[in-house]
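We keep the chain:
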Amino acid sequence: MWYAEMFAELESQKDEEKAPQMAAYMKNRFPFLGLQKPERAEIVKPYIKRAAKKEKIDWGFIDACWLKSYREAQYVGVDYLSAVQNKLQEHDLAKLQELITTKSWWDTSDSLAGVVGFLVQKYPALVADMLAWSKSENIWLRRVAILFQLKYKEKTDVDLLEKIICANFGSGEFFIDKAIGWILREYSKVNPGWVRGFIRKYEDKMAKLSIKEGSKYI
């Protein structure tokens, strides 16, 4: 397996001082090696670059990343997916769903939201899945459904965005309310009038956090 050497190199660079600090920042949900993004990227870049040249996505590698106990391994898996996302096929959404709902937290779900967004643009029929995710009992699927259009800018489907956000009013979940504010804030950079109108229309149903975040640039 080409990635055994990569994991060994990552693990050899464990920072005993930074590891507990990084774990504490993530509410001690996962152990860390203590490798921050620039250090991690320097180690894995040549491995991912070579692997990205292969014809097919190496799901075995991604599974290995998710089986590792330290959180940096999942970050590496997401980095790899981002590098090969043009190879994703429509049926791969099921695998992305599995990753989002396994060892779940905002860090991996938010990164995977970008990969999901790319896939939905490539296969518009997957919009139906985003609507389904927006009503899921799993808050991370709901968060991804809210955020998958984050980088769409003027290509954002506002009707879809409105349906998904409205499906999440009253959740009482910090990560959902924050995501609503985030997507509105980001879209306000290209269409402040729409966001202003949306907040005015639904102000009585929106969490204060969502309104605060969504109104930042308007």
Remarks:
- The radius of gyration is 18 Å.
- The chain has 13 helices and no strands.
- Residues 106-122 form the longest helix (17 residues).
- The CA atoms of residues 49 and 196 lie 43 Å apart.
